[in-house]
Design brief:
The strands form seven sheets. Strands 4-3-5-6-7 form a five-stranded parallel sheet, with helices on both faces. The chain has a five-stranded mixed sheet with strand order 12-13-14-15-16, covered by helices on one side. The protein is built from 21 helices and 28 strands. Helix 1 packs antiparallel against helix 2 and helix 11 runs parallel beside helix 17. The protein folds into three domains: about 270 residues, ANL, N-terminal domain (Rossmann fold, 3-Layer(aba) Sandwich), CATH 3.40.50.12780; about 190 residues, ANL, N-terminal domain (Rossmann fold, 3-Layer(aba) Sandwich); about 170 residues, 2-Layer Sandwich (GMP Synthetase, Chain A, domain 3), CATH 3.30.300.30. Helix 3 links the parallel strand 3 and strand 4. The protein is α/β, with parallel strands linked by helices.
């Protein structure tokens, strides 16, 4: 492992100068294009960003201007972020799968004058917003495919921008260095918009101090080095990608790898074999679902070997990682399992070189967490939010538990409000403000720097933080028992057939659930069992599918019954939705968080039927197609009862 030497500088453009001088020949970023990996060194990246900065200035970008960045993870878009920052402009990354209407809100709210887009699809959406947004003036595109007939004078190709940059550089040779010297740690670095679970997203203003300080803290804490490899596949608009793919990469000097497309992420992951990897729980759930599906297709001998080795791994592998004593016989068995199962599986997933694996964003199921740690992967949980520049708490290597999110990171103070149970924090990563929203800023930040997370939690006896749920989502059943919907939903999403769940119970006698199945996992099962179907809707109507999901819920009810605090939250009734919950329909955020209030209103008839004793209900829901057209998705939904289990008696106090 290379020696850790954090780069110097207060802004990313200044840090880039240090890297180009001290790490000039080391790889900084790669991209797979047409099946071939292309590499740029730190010195090459500096030259690209210099050209872009001059080009942006030539088309009129000035200090303080907002520049929208939209597309997949591409080197040119990462360079555009730093190039805009270098001349004092503010990049505003947007979710690449956002509809034009969603983009319109961000463009308008951020008062964006310029936009840099990956391809024709993003340009078309930006052009659609221009009729409604007075601020947007010019668009730059990177991928020329499909752009031949776009002759508007406000549209520029990336190549032409670089040509203008060369001419501007010749005419103004000191411009770039003069501009990067003007910026400091307290200057605004970026606007990152929240997912907007309860309404319009808020523009979180982060400074260079926020990003660089959290980058340095995490690099030093986790001893990240120049020889790390990581895969950049998460949205540029998400704060995590700005930390992992820019802040940490620039500070530590490691290489960021961009996949060929979102469809090839898992294949590219296997080719790169990253040493350092972050993913939200949903990604790990999807990978595990793929493993389960493949094992169902395997022969009896291979499936039996896998099941036996994984039982051993969950007992021995987790104990080894946690530093617990393991007998020589178990070590030997685990070593054999590594030869026949664990290492081949890690190679197939692209996890064979991983030294550090992190997950955050929401709680991960304990069984999923233990599965990866059983393979010998040092998976840890961290907790944070956009407003904290990611880091609030993290699990130390020798204190990893599936039901906690760790201890406060160095330099971060965390406390729990005794009256409300809400978690609060303050650190150098605390955001500056919500752009053009002083009321929300005052509501989120106290005068002495504490930030309200909106999450309910507590510190356990090990001094680790446990997050229960969003404070506003935690409710009570009619018997007074606590109802924590996210806790229940995370337990259910462990099962490979279940993709999304929304549970209900606040101010009700019992808990119910609406479930979206995983079409890949259920479809694979249907093919293997000769169950014919023609659509997602038809698949959800199969009684055999309902029976499998009911068995999953029964298993969860048995687990809940053993916990006196959660026994009342056993699920009594459920329904399989005839369509997937979709961000385009407003049911999920772009980070795939459920918009509970919206879903509750949209599916009110279904919820009423769940509690009204009905066994079937006809539903018609307006849906949005990929091309922006709308239609109606209709179906007759079955409502099924789930057996509950008598609660285990509470243990008497010692």
């Amino acid at each position: 492992m290379a020696t850790v030497r954090p780069a110097e500088g207060d802004t990313f453009a200044q840090i880039l100068e240090w890297n180009a001088e001290n790490r000039g020949k080391l790889p900084a970023i790669r991209e797979k294009h047409l099946g071939i990996w292309q590499t740029w060194t730190w010195s090459m990246v500096r030259e690209e960003i210099r050209l872009l900065a001059h080009g942006l200035s030539d088309i009129g970008v000035k200090r303080g201007d907002k520049v929208a960045i939209i597309g997949d993870n591409r080197p040119r878009l990462y360079w555009s972020i730093v190039a805009a920052q270098a001349i004092g402009a503010v990049p505003v990354p947007m979710y690449q799968d956002a509809a034009a209407k969603e983009m319109q809100f961000v463009v308008d709210h951020a008062e964006t004058r310029f936009a840099i887009a990956e391809d024709q699809e993003q340009v078309d959406k930006l052009m659609e917003t221009m009729d409604l947004c007075e601020s947007l003036e010019q668009i730059v595109y990177s991928d020329p495919r499909g752009m031949r007939n776009y002759t508007e004078d406000y549209i520029h190709s990336f190549d032409s921008l670089e040509e203008r940059g060369r001419a501007h550089m010749q005419a103004n040779p000191s411009f770039y260095n003069d501009e990067i010297a003007k910026s400091g740690s307290d200057d605004t670095a970026i606007f990152l918009y929240t997912s907007g679970t309860t309404g319009n997203p808020k523009g979180v203003v982060l400074t260079f101090k926020n990003l660089v300080s959290m980058g340095r803290m995490s690099v030093e804490l986790e001893k990240l080095a120049e020889d790390e490899d990581t895969l950049a596949y998460l949205p540029l608009a998400w704060v995590g990608d700005n930390i992992f793919s820019i802040a940490q990469s620039y500070v530590a000097g490691f290489c960021v790898n961009c996949p060929e497309s979102q469809a090839t992420v898992l294949q590219d992951l296997r080719e790169i074999g990253p040493t350092y990897f972050f993913a939200p729980p949903r990604i790990f759930e999807n990978v595990l679902t793929t493993v389960h599906v493949r094992m169902e297709d395997a022969g009896r001998l291979k499936r039996g070997l896998f099941d036996r080795c994984m039982k051993l791994a969950k007992r021995v592998g987790v104990a080894k990682l946690n530093g617990h004593p393991v007998s020589m016989l178990d070590r030997f068995k685990y070593w054999l399992g590594g030869i026949f199962v664990y290492q081949p599986l890690k190679n197939a997933l692209g996890f064979s070189r991983m030294r550090r694996v992190y997950t955050a964003g929401e709680a991960i199921g304990p069984d999923i967490f233990d599965f990866y740690r059983a393979l010998g992967l040092n998976m840890k949980q961290l907790y944070g939010q956009t407003e904290s520049t990611v880091f609030v708490t993290m699990q130390p290597d020798d204190e990893v538990y599936p039901d906690t999110v760790g201890i406060p990171c160095p330099g971060v103070e965390v406390k729990v409000d005794e009256a409300t149970g809400e978690v609060l924090y303050r650190s150098s990563g605390v955001f500056k403000e919500y752009y053009r929203n002083p009321e929300a800023t005052a509501e989120a930040k106290t005068d002495d720097g504490w930030v309200h997370t909106g999450d309910a939690g507590f510190f356990d006896t090990k001094k680790h933080l446990k997050i229960i749920d969003r404070a506003k989502d935690v409710g009570k059943l009619n018997d007074g028992a606590m109802f924590a919907p996210k806790y229940l939903e995370n337990k259910l999403k462990f099962f490979p057939f279940i993709r999304e769940v929304v549970t209900f119970g606040d101010q009700h006698e019992f808990v119910t659930a609406m479930i979206s199945i995983d079409p890949d996992a259920v479809g694979n099962w249907a093919e293997r069992n000769n169950v014919s179907y023609a659509s997602y809707r038809e698949l959800t109507s199969k009684e055999t599918v309902y029976e499998i999901i009911r068995e999953n819920l029964e298993q969860v009810n048995q687990e809940l019954a053993s916990d006196p605090a959660m026994a009342s939250s056993q699920i009594h009734r459920f329904v399989l939705l005839h369509k997937e919950l979709d961000a385009d329909d407003g049911e999920l955020t772009r980070t795939r968080k459920v918009r509970r209030r919206f879903v509750a209103e949209r599916y009110k008839e279904v919820i009423d039927a769940l509690y009204g004793g009905a066994s079937e209900i006809h539903v018609e829901i307006e849906t949005t197609f990929e091309d922006g057209r709308t239609g109606v998705s209709a179906g007759d939904l079955l409502i099924v009862d789930v057996p509950t289990v008598a609660a285990a008696p509470a243990k008497a106090a010692a």
